Amino acid sequence: MPVSPPHLVIAPIIIPLALGALMLFFEDRERRLKLALSLVSVATLLAVSISLLMRVHFDAQPVMAVYLLGNWPAPIAINLVADRFSVVMLLLTATLALPALLFAAERWERAGAHFYSLFQFLLVGLNGAFLTGDLFNLFVFFEVLLAASYGLALHGGGPLRVRAGLHYIAVNLVASLIFLIGIAMVFGATGSLNMAEIAMRAEGLEGFAQPALYAGLALVALVFLVKAGMWPLSFWLVPAYSAAAGPVSAIFAVLSKVGVYALLRLALLLPGEGAAFGSTLIFIGGVGTLTFSCLGVLASQSLKRAAAYFILMSSGTLLAAFGISHPAGTAGALFYLISSTLAVGGFFLLVELLEREQDTASEVLAVTLEAYGEGEEEDEEEEVGQIMPGALAVLGVAFGLLALVLIGFPPLSGFLSKFAILTAILGPGAEELAGQSTMRNILASFLIISGVVALIALTRTGIRTFWAPVEPFNPRVTVLETAPILFLVAALVVLSVMTGPVMELLLATAEDLHQPSRYLDAVLGAERVQPSSERGP
Amino acid sequence: MELVIAAAIGVLAGSGVWLILRPRTYQLVIGLALLSYAVNLFIFSMGRLRVNAPPVLEGSGAVDVTAYTDPLPQALVLTAIVISFATTALFLVVIIVARGLTGTDHVDGKEG
User: Fold this and answer.
1) Do A154 and B94 make contact, defined as CB atoms within 8 angstroms?
2) Are the CB atoms for A280 and A291 separated by under 8 Å?
């Protein structure tokens, strides 16, 4: 292994798991230590993802890294697969986790117990779900990330959060049970849980096994769509996400993308008649989600609800674009996935700072801080850290830049990604999609309409918040709270500048996805590690 | 035996779904528990129903696999039981907190 050691593939799961568990041994008072450990974990994850990216794409001979747990030959036992798609998602998660963590360090970590451990376990679940090549293992990692997310969604407490959290947990528990039924049906039909082996066996199924497989997969896809927030399965999302603490909502932005990821991974692995399995339905759902989220963004009274609707808008765009199922369109949609996730994450953090003065959430926080024996008046003065001068100006500029991405205005990545999708479905080279001209036109118009809606909503809030507020206010924010937002804005600027190489990477990713044989070959042809002769018999 | 298992799954799942749609949190928890029993039985049955066949292979030589039942669904059921047990416990905590904060056991936090 010239570039990186083979065990690097499992590092994104092991590192947060070990550090998160380690942190449970310390009391919550040891904040500095816990923060330091969390930062070490996230920074290592970032480094590992970049190193894996080098291996799967930028290497002279890029390979899909398959990690055989327990060194069993490929279709047996669980395996982890780091291909371009998973590594891109790993990198995205780590990039969003770092600012969310820093943001939480200023204030939110004190609002409840075990924030850092839960955060790390959430990362375990996310990274595991991105890496695993086994359907049941995917379920287990889903449960890990959901269990952590239940804790995080309720972080800070208060009636509002608990009420939204109750619905969130109930919906996801039912979804998990449906997931299990789906997995069981797939297993019953194919006799395998390995995604590559399922895809391989799906072609030769006869009799009752064929409809059983498709019914099972439809149930599994239903669960992913609940996670992704497809209308009409998405009514739980907005209350839960908008009630959660700022940094938690920011990392939840990537949570809804897990559903999109799993859906895409599974749908494209399966043989279909010309298009991916169920793509028309996904397309219709995506357009429905876009409509719903456009109305929601316009109707939202609070910025945080609007931010949650932006998550739905991003999911809707992705589902509709993936429904077209065309490699270039998929690449554009992946670019949109990255840029919209970072932008919505940053937006959640920003909104938190703006609304905390007026919002009920801050009152709730004040109450819970008291319950934990914190947040006395004099205490707060010293704890609050360095107050940022000219905070409103900085936040205003950050708001403007994030709005540019969310709307899809040039020159930032939001525009570039939408442009990439539009070029793929309308530009030269789209002739091969002739049969889907209605779908393409609908997608193109909805992309543009959603941009206009975002423009209206964000202009309105921008003017109301920064230019002509009802009561002039100067948010008391600290440098440490602003830095994560600026980090995300900077990441988006870098993404926009580096569009060339990034699009190359994403085109290669989309081609991998649309040619499942590459994935199958990599997994089923994975070589076992030969036991070294010196070590025992 | 197929009929018995199918009926058991059907009754459990039907009762579970009905309870989940009820407005009280306690009914919700019991509904989820019943539904998870139904799901566990269903996973179990997906390994095909066999009577008097052990799931563990004996001996290291060549064995006749048709004499054994599929061990994998049993392992899956075990995992599923543990996970649903843990999440139900967690959900119970949330429900008790919600009861304390809102003063009602209605799922929406208010009567009516």
Assistant:
1) yes
2) no
